[in-house]
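Can't paste images in this forum, so I'm doing it all in text. The chain is below; anyone willing to post the predicted structure tokens underneath?
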Amino acid sequence: INNRIRKLIDPTFRLPLFNAISTNIDFDRVSIGDPSVRTLLVENRGNLPFNIETVVSDNPAFRVLTELPFEVGIAQIAEIEIVFEPSQEGLVGGLITITTDDPRTPSATFNVQGQGQAPNIGLFPADVLTFDRTFIGQSQTLNVRISNLGAGVLVVPRATVTDSQFIVELNDTLRVNSSQSQQLRITFNPVAEGLQ
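Text version of the structure:
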């Protein structure tokens, strides 16, 4: 007897039914160093829970963030987060395979793809930031212009200096879009005489 018919006429019959809401995932353009996350949606159309046991990618540029295994209850929709972290420019593709304990659908595959883009940093001034003569106890602030000469998004998570007399004002990650620039403030607080 067909399981769908049996489900209607036999109230004691229980069967999970895995269904993929998502089909393929296109991450579109993603910058190297700035990963992007998309979500696969699956649902349970049956009247018995099932488990998502494994989610495997055949390309290391695509990783699974969702903790596994997990249960999908009756009539529930579940999210599986996939991150794309390109290491090179160009089109990148992969295959995501999901395994379940649903006897009707023990596995399902999804195509994923994305376009890796590489930013290119430009600094002005490029070599030396020269402060005017500054008295001890006073301070002077200059800007360094950070430009993205490449594609995608240039991500600057931090900036450091080796001399504590100079302070870099970067409270949050700096994100610079392609062909755009942002200013980074650097303050000089001299505590000793002479060239620093």
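Residues 86 and 190 are 43 Å apart (CA to CA). The longest helix spans residues 3-9.
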